[in-house]
From TrEMBL:
Leader sequence segment: none
Highest taxon above the source species: Bacteria
SUPFAM superfamilies registered for this protein in UniProt: NAD(P)-binding Rossmann-fold domains
InterPro entries found in the cross-reference section: Ergot_Alk_Oxidoreductase (IPR051604), NAD(P)-bd_dom (IPR016040), NAD(P)-bd_dom_sf (IPR036291)
Protein name listed in UniProt: NAD(P)H-binding protein
């Protein structure tokens, strides 16, 4: 019988971290979840919630006690500022007996990820998901209040991934042999345009949604009004206008690592239909 393993999940209150936690719990592992504010964590029963800050690595010492696997994020604080504390976090992890580490790639240079890759004493796995399906939740307000989605570059293709599948790949890499030194690009099972996504959400909530294409200039104005910094806007324009090949190529990592096919956007939309529910007339009478 496999021994229960204790895993420390950082970023555990985030979009991906919650899924890593859920997948580990479902596998029967002991999950410890790091947050800067346990009172706001709202994590499921059975999770041991601990306080700590990745920007202050020594605050992780109690959290690392008895841990065999560690899931890391590469950023801290507002606007995904890259963490510089990787070497100390890894030093503490090794001292605590951590054997496996997963790190969620942030899409750009990361001193923390570099520190993980340079560590020969742990089995590390870099998780490189493409666009999260959860990003579509940003459309919920517009869909609920006016039945429309306003987006630029609506023909762009995306191999978007269900965040549950990122969590599932992480859970396997954190608890099973054979994933050390791997970089896993993680995608969904299909390529979708913005129009495909909107139609899928419309079907899931059984209400029409209008797709309004914005010009690049108009999109920039809206992102500025929403308070996005200029470098984030530049990243979004680049990613949307010239989506890199990796973001529009389906790969079979999820099935290879977990044994299950990657979840579809239709599944995701059905799970989240309530978030998009409005009072507009139903498509079908
Ligand atoms: N969105 C996409 O399509 C996409 C695609 C590929 C990759 N990514 C990458 O995914 C990452 C974002 O992941 P996410 O969406 O799951 O994050 P998220 O939902 O924004 O959650 C942020 C998490 O970071 C934790 N955190 C922030 N600063 C911290 C600190 N100093 N110490 C400890 N914890 C801290 C927060 O914990 P507390 O507040 O509880 O402390 C929270 O759990 C980024 O690196 C992004 O580049 C995103």
């Amino acid at each position: 019988m496999t021994q229960t393993q204790r895993i420390l999940v950082t970023g555990a209150t985030g979009t991906v971290g919650r899924q890593v936690v859920a997948e580990l719990l479902a596998r029967g592992d002991a999950v410890r979840a790091l947050t800067r504010d346990p009172a706001r964590a709202a994590l499921p029963d059975g999770v041991e919630v601990v306080q700590g800050d990745l920007a202050e690595p020594d605050s992780l010492i109690p959290a690392l006690e008895g841990v065999t696997g560690l899931h890391l994020i590469t950023f801290g604080g507002a606007y995904f500022a890259p963490l510089e504390t990787g070497p100390r976090i890894l030093e503490l992890a090794r001292a605590a007996g951590v054997r496996r580490v997963t790190v969620l790639h942030g899409g750009g240079p990361s001193p923390l990820e570099d520190a993980v890759r340079a560590d020969d004493d742990v089995d590390w796995t870099v998780l490189m998901p493409v666009e999260f399906m959860a990003n579509c939740l940003e459309w919920a307000d517009g869909i609920v209040t006016s039945g429309e989605v306003r987006e630029p570059f609506v023909s762009r293709l995306s191999a978007m991934v269900h965040e549950g599948d990122i969590g599932a790949v992480a859970a396997v890499a954190l608890t099973e042999e054979g994933h050390g030194g791997q970089e896993y690009v993680i995608t969904g099972p299909e390529l979708l345009t913005v129009g495909d996504k909107v139609a899928t959400i419309a079907a899931a909530r059984d209400r029409e949604i209008a797709l309004v294409e914005l010009s690049e200039e108009h999109a920039i104005v809206r992102w500025r009004e929403a308070g996005h910094p200029e470098d984030v806007i530049g990243f979004l324009i680049q990613a949307y206008k010239n989506t890199p090949e990796v973001g529009r190529t389906v790969v079979d990592t999820v099935e290879k690592v977990t044994g299950y096919p990657a979840r579809t956007f239709a599944q995701w939309a059905a799970e989240h239909a309530d978030a998009f529910t409005a009072t507009a007339p139903a498509i079908k009478a």
